[in-house]
Write a structure and sequence with these properties.
There is one protein chain. The chain is α/β, with parallel strands linked by helices. Helix content is about 30%, strand content about 15%. It has eleven helices and twelve strands. The strands form four sheets. Strands 1-2-3 form a three-stranded mixed sheet, with no helix packed on it. Strands 4-5-6 form a three-stranded mixed sheet, sandwiched between helices.
Length: about 300
């Protein structure tokens, strides 16, 4: 996780992120302070549940308003591979930092760094686990088409990681591309949360059949729930090998009892209040976490 010292509204990303909203506060410093309070409370809440959290500061001497969302530039894999991804906007590319890789390499086994970030120069973008939702147990990866997710680059990464790729089209209620796959779908151990209504009719059977073939219980969410980030969740395991489904309080509050009951078979819940980060940044709890699947030294 990365502390949002320079957090604020990012006009460069707003064109492709319908979730971002420009809050009319004259004091930009107040927005940043609110985000820091939310972030620290979130990280502390994870730690209280015995979840191992590595917190890094934002890039020094650079204003990186979206640094709080590190999952877009890096992913860590169980076989010792790290992937560095190409980002759509220039002011997000400064988020990629070698010192974070080096710090984590001291605790975890890193065998290979796959750096595809150079594809930015060709206009080919793939924003990490925002663009890609991995089913690690079944070794299947899912991605929906958008300005931030290049089809060919997605399949290239799948090949390098040894995953089967499932590419599809998903749009919001206005027919606009959903900017990141992890906004409309989450995969955990035994379940998948997904907004089926958002998937193109030509692709929905392909996606749902793939999930069910992997033994996952499919839990459908509505557009209303998606708009409250109920698709933007991540399953984490604590030091006692207990599973937690992490989402924002906004997301948890719109889940129906039946959905909570079905998810409760697999996980416990953590749902911090991160309203400022969600509203101004256009990302939620899952976006704030780069999950580490590397083996410890």
């Amino acid at each position: 996780m990365v502390r949002p010292q320079h957090f604020g509204y990012n006009p460069e990303t707003a064109a492709s992120n319908a979730f971002q909203k420009k809050i009319l506060l004259c004091d930009h410093h107040k927005i940043t302070q609110n985000a820091l309070i939310e972030f620290d409370a979130f990280a502390d809440q994870l730690k209280r549940h015995l979840i191992d959290v590595h917190v890094f500061d934002s890039p020094k001497n650079h204003k990186a308003p979206d640094a709080v969302f590190p999952n877009n530039w890096i992913s860590f894999h169980e076989d010792g591979k790290i992937v560095l991804y190409p980002m759509l906007t220039k002011n997000r590319r400064i988020e990629r930092r070698q010192e974070i890789i080096e710090a984590l390499s001291g605790k975890f086994i890193v065998k290979e760094v796959i750096d595809i970030s150079g594809s930015e120069s060709e206009g080919k973008i793939l924003e990490g686990t925002g663009s890609i939702v991995f089913d690690h147990k079944n070794r299947i990866a899912y991605a929906n088409a958008s300005a931030r997710t290049d089809r060919n680059l997605f399949y290239d990464v799948c090949q390098q990681l040894g995953y089967e790729g499932v590419f599809f089209k998903a749009v919001d209620e206005r027919g606009l591309d959903i900017y990141h796959t992890n906004v409309m779908m989450t995969i955990g151990d035994g379940f998948a949360v997904i907004c089926k209504a958002s998937i193109d009719q030509d692709d929905v059977a392909k996606v749902i059949n793939s999930l069910q073939a992997g033994g996952l219980e499919v839990i459908d969410i509505s557009y209303r729930q998606l708009n409250h980030f109920a698709g933007n969740m991540i399953q984490l395991e604590n030091t006692n090998h207990e599973n937690f489904l992490v989402m924002s309080n906004s997301a948890f509050s719109v889940l129906e009892k039946g959905q909570i009951d079905r998810l409760s078979k697999y996980v416990n819940f953590v749902h911090p209040e991160i309203n400022t980060i969600e509203t101004v940044g256009g990302g939620s709890a899952r976006c704030m976490i780069a999950g580490i699947h590397l083996q410890e030294r």
